[in-house]
Amino acid sequence: MRRILTTLLFASLLAAGTQAQTLDPTDYIYPIRNVDGSCSANFGEMRPGHFHAGVDIRTGGAEGKPLVAVADGYVSRLYLSSGGYGRAIYIALANGTTAVYGHMQCFRDDIEEYVRNERYARRANRLDLYFTPDVWPVRQGDIIGYSGNSGSSMGPHLHFEVRDTPTQRLYNPVHEGIIRPTDTLPPRIFRLHYVEVDTLPGTDLCLRSTPCTHQTKVERPGHYRLQRTEPVEVGRKGYFVAEVSDRRNGVNNTFGIWRLTAWVDDERVFEYRMDGFTFDLSRCCDAISCYPLQIASRNECIRLAQLATAPDCFYSAMTERGILRTEPGQIRHIRIEAEDDSGNISHLHFDVRGRTGQFRAEADSTAKIVRPDTPTTISSGPGMRARIPAGAVYETIYCRPEQLPAPQADSGIVVLSPAYRILPATIPLRRAATISIRADVPHHLQLRASLAKKSAKGRVTYIGGHYADGAVTARTTSTDGLFVVADTLPPRITPLFKSGADLSKTPELRFRVSDNFSGIASASLVIDGAWVPCDRYPMQSRLIHRFDTPACGRKHTVHLTLRDGAGNTTHWEGSFYR
After folding, report:
1. What is the pLDDT of residues 219-231, one digit of tens each?
2. For the chain, what is the radius of gyration of the CA atoms?
3. Bridge-partner residues for 451, per DSSP?
């Protein structure tokens, strides 16, 4: 029977891979049991540097909820890591899609045993395993594991995705009807920002005015107007940015919107839709949003215009790249609609009037021009050199690199160079730049040297890189305020048991682990001289080994070694009885 099932599944997957996918929500059941069906994050909402790739299903603050196969298929991939999705399982389904379950506590028993054996055989805590259809076939409703809080998770929940199997393109599970949260609340439209633009003559360099912000007022649910009653004064050429978010019944979380549409004098001139994307486009949220406003807001600040290289696939309607042209004295009527992925819609109506005078772009002979289609090398004296690849910026920009004073850092971090601004923090990069900063690094610190930057909260944060030939070089999308540091402090280990304690009734060996700066890069746990697997939970500063042999009532030695990103190493030794 298993062989027949496997053959049918494989044939279905091959057939589905040759056809365009049209999802039928009745193909799927809910991926998790014993939850209320509410979500804490939705598909495509804008995160720092990426779109959210799935939906986050709430588990009531608890772990261990049964996860089930949403349709017939097979386990195509198992992934274990201390970051990202943590423990994740991928189910290739017979209809040509793949369901992904992230932040799991554990897999079902037979899969967990297989994974444990692989970890021992490879002496590896991290695994990324792929399987053919005959290894782990599953039926719709089969338990495949249990929900948890692993990886880069801020609290127990299930991260759930649906992908097209051949292309790995992500679908919007709520808009497709696969996940159906209770949602009767329309999106919120908080503010509207107007930006005037002008192109520098003879170039493709578009310069912008400072945004002019207009507050909105809700008349009744789903209906908004501007607080001002007179028409908005606009220039000859510009666009609006809508600051929006969404809510759902019964939860306090905010969500991203699915659609944003603009009409000018009853002509649809712009529409953004979050139907899906491939992972190579995930960073493009920085182009869909108005990035300078987005990084300062808790809402989504969506630009009602298209940047030069923003992907067309996110826009279902576009006239003149969304630019609004208005003659002096001309009155035009604007209508904006925001829709969530459950079909709730909010409206905003207002008039604009063209003003006399306009914003003019002015050339800056001291600045360097960076274009999307051309690699660019930027330097600031002999101390800094940056190579920005083609495709890194979303439009042609001015660049004015500058040297800044060396910042202060916490104890254990030695600052070894001035800071450098290559691009302002308000300009995002889609592809990483290669940045080298020269510094006089003492020989004993050279292996500990890296690039760092100051966070928005003033904390020195790790970028990475390596020292060679008098400079530290790293690939990074961070370009504002970079400098060279050396990390001199090793990670910290605190056992959550007393050395020599009796752990015969305890299922786990637990440690609190942390690092001051560069983060824990690797962990190695040895019991009685033999390597054993361990799981690290960075968001909870925990490292755990789950005992997989019965207690035998004797003393065991334990040795834990941690290494941080800068190469600093910590050892801890102790014992326990079990």
Report:
1. 999 999 999 999 9
2. 27
3. 464, 484
